[in-house]
Amino acid sequence: MPARNSSVRYGSVAQFLHWTIVVLLIIQVTLGKIAHELPVGLERLVLMARHKSVGITILGLAVVRLAWRWIDRPPPPVPMPRWQDIAARLNHWALYALLFALPLTGWLMSSAANRPASWFGLVQLPDFIAPDPGLKESFEEAHELLVNVLFVLAGLHVAAALKHQFLDRDGLLFRMLPWRAR
Amino acid sequence: MMLRKLALPVALAVALCPAALAGPRQADAASGTLEFSAIQADARFSGAFKQFRVVFDFDPGQPAAGRLDVTVDTASIDTQDGERDEILRGPDFFSAAKYPQAVYHAERFERTGDGWRADGELTIRGKKRAVPVTFTLAPAGEATIMQGTANLKRLDFGLGQGEWASTEWVGDAVDIRFELRLAPVG
Questions:
Q1: What CATH homologous superfamily does B24-184 map to?
Q2: Which helix (H) or strand (E) holds B67?
Q3: Architecture of domain A12-176
Q4: CA dihedral B75, B81, B83, B86 (to 10 degrees)
Q5: Beta-carbon separation of B42 and A118 below 8 A
Q6: Is the alpha carbon torsion for A169, A173, A174, A179 positive or negative?
Q7: Contact call for A114 and B81, based on CB within 8 A
Q8: Contacts 24+ apart (CB under 8 A), B162-168
Q9: B137 CB burial (10 A radius; 0-12, 13-18, 19+)
Q10: How far from A145 is each of A2, A24, A88, A153, B101, CA to CA, in Å?
């Protein structure tokens, strides 16, 4: 599979970034949800540390992905009604925005809570805002709202991909998979 | 007229008293800061104590006669994180209900390069340990600015019971720094 996109499918770099971020997002949401239910204690501290490390990783990959998308333009869309094409484009850009907004609100929330983030113990993130319990609440609400937006938009994204694959039978899913169509 | 008559004697008194530190001096949270930093989940964070009192009786010309006493209200710990503060005040850390105060007492002082070192003892949770404190003194009018640092290991004092005794996610080392504006007592 070529590294770069062809006119009919995504290349290995775009695919690797797409699926790595999918896996990390699933891990990330799971870590966040479990930690959120735990009482204050060491176990929650550890899970939140992992959550922050994974979040920083996602932010880094989002930067790489956006840069790569600019270098290597995606294949043109498969034939579909105009409204679906527009909806798909909007949803893609909203998902990209979330890949930045979720880690950034988490980062700001960490700084406001005076619980700075570290990337797997290797490097500590700088704090762009001073500790502020009130701001922490605001960023926490934004972070939780955005993750719910992610669920809805990612759900639409998956549903649309499956509709193309199994109802329209246009082979769209194979554009983002390493296997050959049929 | 009265002021003018007083001006010369006062000026002479100040000039003849260069140490300007004779007699006990004091500071508290209104005239100083007592901060610390430590590692939590691989990241350094800072906190402070909002209630404390320092009494320092020290003549640089006679360090052997010096005395430094610091009393800190453990419940006044503030890391700008309510959940963490609650744990720090609780039984696993300062146990503030049982040990409302941490105290530092030093009677031995040695000159260092640009300042002093106090070799005193810190008592937290009823555990007394030797903790050196390095500091500098600078005159500021009637007052004296005292700036310094100290380093301690929290587990020496039982700060971190049960699961918190592990140093993997909460570092053992705690860095202390303070800046005090010491004013003459009375």
A1: Lipid/polyisoprenoid-binding, YceI-like (2.40.128.110)
A2: strand B67-73
A3: Up-down Bundle (1.20)
A4: 0
A5: yes
A6: negative
A7: yes
A8: B162/B92, B163/A41, B163/A42, B164/A42, B164/B87, B164/B92, B164/B93, B166/A42
A9: buried
A10: 38, 19, 22, 13, 43
Residue B43 has its nearest CB partner, among A40, A46, A116, at A116
On whether any CB of chain B is under 8 Å from the CB of A116, the answer is yes
Average pLDDT over residues A21-38: 98
Structure tokens at B9: 């004697």
Interface check A167 vs B, CB under 8 A: no
Are B129 and B111 contacting, i.e. CB atoms less than 8 angstroms apart? no
Q: Can you list the alpha helix ranges (DSSP code H) found in chain B?
A: 2-15, 82-89
**Cβ atoms of A78 and A164 closer than 8 Å:** yes
Q: Hunting for tokens 């404390």 — which residue is that?
A: B52
Q: Read off the pLDDT of residues A129-161 as tens digits, 9 standing for 90 and up.
A: 999 999 999 999 999 999 999 999 999 999 999
Calculate what percentage of chain B has a pLDDT beyond 90: 86
* A66-121 per-position pLDDT tens digit: 999 999 999 999 999 999 999 999 999 999 999 999 999 999 999 999 999 999 99
Cross-chain residue pair A124–B164, CB shorter than 8 Å: no
What is the C-alpha separation between A3 and B27, in angstroms, rounded?
A: 67
Please list every residue in chain B whose beta carbon sits closer than 8 Å to the beta carbon of residue A124: 42-44
DSSP assignment letter at A89: H
Domain ranges of chain A: 12-176
Q: Chain-wide mean pLDDT for chain A?
A: 96
As a whole number of angstroms, the distance between CA A90 and CA B64 comes to 76
